[in-house]
Automatic annotation (TrEMBL):
GO terms for molecular function: oxidoreductase activity, acting on the CH-CH group of donors. It comes from the Eukaryota. Belongs to the steroid 5-alpha reductase family. It is a multi-pass membrane protein. It comes from Chenopodium quinoa (Quinoa). The keyword Lipid metabolism applies. This is Ubiquitin-like domain-containing protein. The gene is LOC110724891.
Length: 310
């Protein structure tokens, strides 16, 4: 079979196309493109079928596991595919590792090192117990997230654009420094002991629940990440689609009850906004996938992220 690989502007990426045997898969084609171009490794490539000029249809992305024959209409021996360079890629584990490493390292610097001298506070700092517990709580949270990234999550998307590493690191590292600066500040006024104990106790319970939610999500997939999207069930997933985000938001509420800083609340609101958007999309996807037609189960009635509001 001959495959013509064209760019989105219609130019041939590889002069004369590529000859592959009839049983070749999309993955074989991607390997062949990589071999010829050297630059475009498979996860950098997005291959689609051409669409009619002026059509509003979204181009169908080729599935790397499928055979090329499935995409060539009838017995045609030539297939044209459209190539898009997705740019340099990194694995999801690399992306998550770097975004979580920043807050894990930056926060204790503010707690343990004399950084406030550089901000004009020359006197010895009095460290309140709540500030030390906040540091433990924070580090436990990000350490847990890194461990989950490597030992729990079963990602379906192989890679993410390298540019996301810079964007996400900017978000997590800046917020980490912003909150650490205020919670560890020499002029920080602690809340009552009862209040911070309730805050951390509640937050810790939510962190453990969040971990359990991630175990339930992990069990929906095979170890190689295959298995697609399933209906999550058990524990809080019986009432809310994104129980992992719900518990994530509440654990930040716990942290803020204990530490009471504007910076902490701003982060919680921004994070809740981001997760709400993602949760709405995940809820829609599951409702579409499990529509109750053709023998598929119907997605049960559930809250999206924050019962009883949404
Ligand atoms: N503070 C913040 O700003 C913030 C923001 C986002 C996340 N987080 C935390 O980081 C954690 C991970 O975030 P995330 O966005 O990666 O969470 P996520 O998309 O809900 O997924 C966690 C893992 O479960 C898989 N999964 C989700 N739904 C599934 C389903 N229905 N069937 C099968 N597998 C499913 C995902 O697969 P895919 O690889 O296919 O997605 C992913 O590998 C969150 O739970 C939260 O605790 C914090």
């Amino acid at each position: 079979m001959k495959v013509l690989v064209v760019t989105r502007s219609g130019k041939e990426l590889l002069k004369g196309g590529i000859e592959l045997n009839d049983s070749a898969t999309v993955s074989d084609l991607q390997e062949a493109i990589h071999k010829r171009t050297k630059k475009y490794y498979p996860s950098r490539q997005r291959l689609t079928l051409p669409v009619q000029p002026g059509s509003k249809e979204r181009p169908a992305v080729l599935n790397s596991k499928k055979s090329l024959k499935e995409y060539s209409d009838g017995n045609s021996n030539t297939l044209t595919v459209v190539f898009k360079d997705l740019g340099p890629q990194v694995s999801y584990r690399t992306l998550f590792f770097f975004e979580y490493l920043g807050p894990l390292v930056i926060y204790p610097i503010f707690h343990y090192l004399p950084v406030y001298r550089f901000f004009g506070y020359k006197e010895e700092r009095v460290i309140h117990p709540v500030q030390t517990y906040a540091c433990y709580y924070w580090c436990f949270h990000y350490f847990k997230r890194i461990m989950e990234t490597f030992f729990v999550h079963r990602f379906s998307h192989a890679t993410s654009p390298l540019s996301n590493v810079f964007r996400n690191c900017l978000y997590y590292w800046t917020f980490g420094a912003f909150i650490a600066y205020y919670v560890n500040h020499p002029l920080y006024t602690p809340v009552s002991e009862l209040q911070w104990k309730i805050g951390f106790g509640f937050g810790l319970l939510c962190q453990l629940s969040n971990f359990y939610c991630h175990i339930l999500l992990k069990n929906l997939r095979r170890p190689d990440g295959n298995g697609g999207y399933q209906i999550p069930h058990g524990f809080l997933f019986n009432i809310v689609t994104c129980a992992n985000y719900t518990t994530e938001i509440y654990q930040w509420v716990g942290f803020n009850i204990a530490t009471q800083t504007v910076a902490g609340y701003v982060f919680a609101v921004v994070a809740a906004g981001i997760m709400t958007n993602w949760a709405l999309a995940k809820h829609r996807r599951l409702k579409k996938l499990f529509d109750g037609k053709d023998g598929k189960p119907k997605y049960p009635r559930r809250w999206v992220i924050l019962p009883p509001f949404l």
